């Protein structure tokens, strides 16, 4: 039996310490597990409500940009399957991808097949990415095939490309039931003025944008607008594409990080992001199981209050 086979999902994600310990021990990961996951003050996953129906999402999701663009290499695909399996096992839900991400959607479909369908906690999120409306229809159809899904939980317009045309298309698919929620995305601080206008005037359910402990411009206008309009927010680049780890390499994790159940920088950065009232979910990307375990540590324990958030910003 391979490690990937061992990571097949049970009906429910892990929500208590005992089951978590058994799972990671079974795949040889116990020694790599941060202590915060072994001794969290709470067994509950951190979830946030994002719709009028009361539906909730785990605050830590998963991105696939670069990390799942691995082509046809079976060994690498199986390793990414293990990463995805670990994500689900530790309580993850939202998985985000795009046609822009090369083979990522195809690799996700492969991994979902290997892990076994259906995955009850999966909240599937992808995007349309083309300036041409007809090609957008083709992309939507192709994404359904690649993921192996009849219905997507969330379909987004990538980087606002031709958003006026694609929004009408997505609304039709939502009406037909092949899409549950609609959103738009941006990253790297681009097109914020236009994004704010869309939040204020268009019938969208989600917005995706860049937010991390150093890139906080969205706190001024975009996040308040999302709160006002009841739009859920997905935070991309919560690690600034990995740069935060390099920028803080010279600093030790502060001792008081333990007060919010953080024993690594990944948890520190992620808990800052998801503790903002407007943020529904953060989507860090990784290609390594050990890093996924660190990321998912932020799904449990305490979140920083406003005073601690300021202290975190001042420290970095």
Automatic annotation (TrEMBL):
It holds the Pfam family Aldo_ket_red. Residues 60-306 form the NADP-dependent oxidoreductase domain. PANTHER family: D-THREO-ALDOSE 1-DEHYDROGENASE, NADP-DEPENDENT OXIDOREDUCTASE DOMAIN-CONTAINING PROTEIN. This is NADP-dependent oxidoreductase domain-containing protein. The lineage of its organism: unclassified sequences, metagenomes, ecological metagenomes.
């Amino acid at each position: 039996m391979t490690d990937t086979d061992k990571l097949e999902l049970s009906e429910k994600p892990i929500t208590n310490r005992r089951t978590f310990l058994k799972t990671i021990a079974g795949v040889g990961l116990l020694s790599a597990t941060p202590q915060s996951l072994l001794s969290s003050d709470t067994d509950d996953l951190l979830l946030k409500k994002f719709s009028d129906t009361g539906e909730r999402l785990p605050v830590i999701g998963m991105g696939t940009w670069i990390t799942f663009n691995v082509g046809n290499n079976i060994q690498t695909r199986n390793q990414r399957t293990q990463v995805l399996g670990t994500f689900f096992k530790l309580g993850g839900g939202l998985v985000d991808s795009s046609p822009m991400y090369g083979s990522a959607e195809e690799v996700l479909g492969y991994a979902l097949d290997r892990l076994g369908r259906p995955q009850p906690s999966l909240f599937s999120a992808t995007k349309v990415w083309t300036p041409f409306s007809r090609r957008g229809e083709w992309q939507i159809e192709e994404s359904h095939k690649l993921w192996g899904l009849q219905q997507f939980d969330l379909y987004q317009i990538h980087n606002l490309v031709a958003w006026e045309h694609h929004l009408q298309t997505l609304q039709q698919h939502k009406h037909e039931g092949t899409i549950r929620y609609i959103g738009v995305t941006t990253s790297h601080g681009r097109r914020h003025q236009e994004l704010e206008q869309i939040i204020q005037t268009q019938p969208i359910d989600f917005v995706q944008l860049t937010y991390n402990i150093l890139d906080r411009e969205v706190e001024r206008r975009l996040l308040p607008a999302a709160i006002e309009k009841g739009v859920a927010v997905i935070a991309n680049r919560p690690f600034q594409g990995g740069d935060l780890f390099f920028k803080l390499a010279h600093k030790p994790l502060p001792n008081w990080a333990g007060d919010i159940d953080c024993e690594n920088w990944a948890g520190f950065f992620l808990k800052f992001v998801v503790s903002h009232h407007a943020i529904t979910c953060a989507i860090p990307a990784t290609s390594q199981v050990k890093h996924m375990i660190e990321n998912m540590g932020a799904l449990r324990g305490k979140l920083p209050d406003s005073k601690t958030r300021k202290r975190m910003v001042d420290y970095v």
